[in-house]
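Let's practice the habit of predicting before peeking. Look at the sequence and jot down your guess about where helices and strands might fall. Then scroll down.
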Amino acid sequence: MPTVFTPQRFLLLCLLPLLLLACSNSEEAQINEMRIRAERGDVEAQYGMAVLAYNGHGVPQDFTASAKWFTLAAEQNHGTAQFNLGTLYEQGKGVTQNLDQALYWYMLATQNNIELAQMAVQRVAAQLTLEQRAVVLGNVTAFSQQHEKQDELGTPSTVGAQ
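Done guessing? Here is the structure:
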């Protein structure tokens, strides 16, 4: 039996591509707005852009871009971004594999009560020398002290990864 095209069905078939386009434009507009906020330093927008780039949702999958956005959020003491950045350094996704950096970000994430980070700290620390761990601990301490001062003064972070 042939398909009957009622006026309503015909109208729906004509409008469906436009509706889909409007939805995709809306998502594109939301992503562009998030990118603008992220570029202005909004930590949640930076984290959001990192997740989108990592998963390839609404933007092409790009681990390097994801690492960039996670770094910006992590430097503002975003615990989940710190954990995810540690994971990228541990796995060498979007960045050169660097276990010292992985440990650094994992240790900061533990200070932000990210539970999975504690296991990651143990796993990565076991692969480093005592000297490497001591240097990382010194860098973590410096980061934490800088952020404590900034919290007291209400000023933005200028301290990056060590």
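How did you do? Confidence is low (pLDDT under 50) at residues 157-162.
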